[in-house]
Amino acid sequence: MQPHQLNDEIKTLLDLVSRKTTSLTESIMEMPVANYSDPQIFEQERHELFRNQPQFVGPSCLLPEPGDYYAFADTGIPVLVVRKADGSLGAYLNACSHRGAPLGDGWGQATNQRLLTCPYHAWAYDLDGNLAAVPFGDEGFTGLDRSTAGLRPLQVEEKHGLIYVMPNPELRFDINEVLGEIGPAFSGFGLDNHHYLGVKRVETQISWKLNMDTFHEFYHFDALHPETIAQMSYSNVCHYQQFGRNHLMSSPARSIHELEQQAEQDWEPRNHMSFVSYLFPNTVIFVVADHFQTWRVYPVNRDKSVVYHSMYIPQPPANAEEQASYEDYFQMINDVAVNEDYTLVEKMQRGINSGIERNVIIGRNEPGVQNMHRQIKECLASTA
Question: Looking at the structure, do residues 122 and 189 belong to the same domain, yes or no?
Fold first, then answer.
């Protein structure tokens, strides 16, 4: 959002706080608890949502330089995305044509910023995925047609500072349809120019959708986070906006009333609110003050999921003290999620696993949770 849009958002939140209310849907939503545990639903989700739907990889600043790559296999298909010499992106099945070993894991850099090298037998590929080198190739692989032995390409798109890839090499997608109008809403948040601080991988004993539920409402702040988040942000107050399958929610900080004593031209709005956005099907981007974080959630099995929590800051830390300060903050946010949210939600998972039939009730004041489940259900219905 641009400065004038941020100021308008502040005014909306001040109004909600003054009226002690929040964005509301037309009605509550009820769904069977089996929606979290049914094995048939889970297998359909894992196949259709994570293999056959475009996946958010990261912001553009995750891969700033030629040769920077990011590799992951949590969709069930190993994917490698790389920044090419001309600044565009390439994406490939992360499997060497020789024996299928992955060429990288997580964030990394190509050899000399130009070669993707297999760690098993050192077969090397250029950033366009072409096979460039085969050790002992003339003798050991006589007759190999190198022109057909490159990496298998995947569709990758980059727009509004957001990188998406299609894991299934047989499928295509329209990035405009995927983003809806949420892309312009990220304008000004620095998705293309921040510094990647790092990632924390968290394994949870929670189904992936129950995991995702924790991010999409602010109703629980006072009850679950009285000494942490509730000290910084209002509970049960948000401004909800939907963009296709995605949504964006703003939340007021406790300090928002300070702006009422200042001239609007002197406001620094990002210091007094935060944003939580949902990118279908499994990603949350959290924007606060001068930085942003991404949370990507993937299913492991019906009652386990893994979370990749990444943080991006305005520029590289100037010194060790500043580095430590950012690292401490990053760890604090992660600890809140693990020690407060996940500790409780893992107990909720035990109730789900009990097999007792009941309905889950999602309130009118939880529009983000409602939208996520509605979009997942509609997507699965359209592919059934």
Answer: no
CA atoms within 13 A on the CB side of 200: 19
- Choose one of 172, 203, 232: the last residue of a domain: 172
What integer best gives the mean pLDDT of the chain? Answer: 96
Model-level pTM greater than 0.70? yes
Return all residues near 198 (Cβ < 8 A) that are at least 6 apart. 310, 311, 330
> pLDDT by residue (tens digit) across 88-125?
999 999 999 999 999 999 999 999 999 999 999 999 99
User: What is residue 383's predicted lDDT score, i.e. its pLDDT?
Assistant: 83
In terms of domains, do 168 and 195 share one? Answer: no
Mean pLDDT, rounded, for 227-253: 96
Do residues 336 and 225 touch, judged by C-beta distance below 8 A? yes
Question: Distance (Å, rounded) from C-alpha 368 to C-alpha 219?
Answer: 11
